[in-house]
Amino acid sequence: MPLSLDARDGLRRCRDCGAWKALDDFCANSKRPSGRGSYCKACFNVRSRASYAKRLKETRGREVKQLPQVPDGHRFCPDCGTAKPVTDFPRNRSDSTGYASYCKPCHNARTRETKQRLYGGSREYHLRRRYGVGQKEFDELLAEQGGVCAICGGAAPQHLDHDHRTGWVRGILCFNCNGGLGQFRDSPTRLARAITYLKGTMWQRVLIHPGVYQMCSPTRGRRPSRLS
Known about the structure:
Layout: E1 7-8, E2 11-13, E3 20-22, E4 26-28, E5 36-40, H1 41-60, E6 74-77, E7 82-85, H2 104-119, H3 122-131, H4 135-144, E8 159-162, E9 169-173, H5 175-183, H6 188-200, E10 204-209, E11 212-216
Antiparallel strand pairs: 1-2, 2-3, 4-5, 6-7, 8-9, 10-11
Helix pairs in contact: 2-3
């Protein structure tokens, strides 16, 4: 069977640009015997954009906004209207370029505006996203604790403590107590050993000879000298 004028040896000729290209360079089309369309992907994209612009103008009377040309390695920020290096944009895996649509300053400004608009501020956003509670619940829990740290009793604690395994909120702690639990990895065993250590270990320097000292502990059965 003779080959079609626009197909030969696994190649197809694009009806627009006239170039012979591999079938993989053409868009899929189940209606064609080869499973590929008549236009290469580049020409098909040009046709799609032109068709969209025509429909937009006919149905809504609007023109398609033309993005400015930017140098290689740069990206245009639509908020500030400037072209910047891609390193000035936050990373975004969901975008085909790997970067967000807005530069870092504009991205941060949009984030602050969204937090303010949806949550009333960064504090409420942080509490709800990380712990599932708001400032109202925080204030109620703090009132139940008498307005003090649940461990040391210090005034005006600001850190919401939670179980890292379950995510459940446990109480409100001051900075030092909250950090202390974290340093001990929330382990009751480590904390119990620390208590035993504090109660049973009191090393002191003891004078055993003029100018000579020795470190002694109650566990060694020696009491510290008054001269130490």
